[in-house]
Amino acid sequence: MKRWWTVVAYVIIPGIDGSDGQHWQTLWERQWGTSAVRISPASWSAPDLDDWVGAVQKAYDDASQRASRVVLVAHSLGCWAASTWLNKNPSSPTVGAFLVAPPDPHEPVFPRQAAATFMAVSAQPLPCPALVVGSANDPYCTPEAAAGFAARWEARWHLAGACGHLNSASGLSSWQHGRELLDSLTQQ
């Protein structure tokens, strides 16, 4: 039996200031080449939610021209931009949302001044399959809060262990376990 594989395009949605060259998102983006589109908000360092959601829309439009299946791959503050965009676009044919290390806006370490427009975000059911990945020792979100976001997003939840904020400082490199988790989301 011959299988037909649909090409997937990925929208990369980093957190504040973007993902540096050693971040798993950047490494995956390099591997995916033209199948990946990174958002480009004007407000990387002082995130404005509307600007970021607009950047997700622009990247999504670009990615959907490259493939019939689009997956959002978000980290940190990017999780809130992704979920906000998804809730504003419930009929988008998004295949899935991979949401890693969403920060808790109620935690004292949340960048309240830099990301003031993100303070009122709330987790609501998402219109596509989603997987939330958290860490046992993320300084920006407790595992309990991340699991709560996953429940309210109606997403699968995965605790990746004690990996900090699941970023470059976590030493994940190309994060093979994360790729396996992403594959489990997109192969449903």
Automatic annotation (TrEMBL):
SUPFAM superfamilies linked to this entry: alpha/beta-Hydrolases
GO MF annotations, alphabetized: hydrolase activity
Keywords: Hydrolase
Superkingdom as given in the UniProt entry: Bacteria
Name of the protein described by the UniProt record: Alpha/beta hydrolase
